[in-house]
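Q: Focus on the chain.
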Amino acid sequence: MMRMLKTHESRRVFPGGGNTLRSLLFGLAVVAMLVLGFWGLGYHSSEFRGGIGIQDSGLFSYPRYHVQIGEVPLSRNGQYLFAVRGLPPCAMDLALQIKGANSAEADQLTSLATSVSVSITDVSGKIVCFGGGSLSNSTRRGLRSWTLTSSGSGASFWHPACQQLPMSRHKSYVVKVSVLGTDQLSSKYVLLPLLQGGGVELP
């Protein structure tokens, strides 16, 4: 009798147990739907069109998106137009990366007499940004001149007027780069216009 009693007690069902399990499963289903919905509405790098390409470094990187617009040789004067659309919907910074250069060439880069101007306009003709000036003025770090940033792995020029630009994934943009005053020193360099932004900047 004692053994039968213990067996009977081990099968006791606690009231409310089924409801708790159903509530847990329902909660997990809601969370899964929200995650899928957010993913579906979020930006995908495959939306980008034009230029060379886009790199997504991941949510917890900064900057997250690196949009490669094109190549601009400093060996000849001229204007270079690039049409892009499907950009990440975030504030983006424009930079002119110098192909193959790094901090070891900083003195040469800041002595370039070549003038470079960049403008970005949207499909309606609205000017999103305009910045220009002689690359040799980059040592002044003024509000209207280019500034050189360099390290052992790369070098780029950036302009205060073309930072934190509000871009839309639904608009088309034209990036125009104008080069004037090329010489023998500048002719060996190639500029790579980039738009970078998004992600999480850690303290």
Summary: The two ends are 69 Å apart (CA to CA).
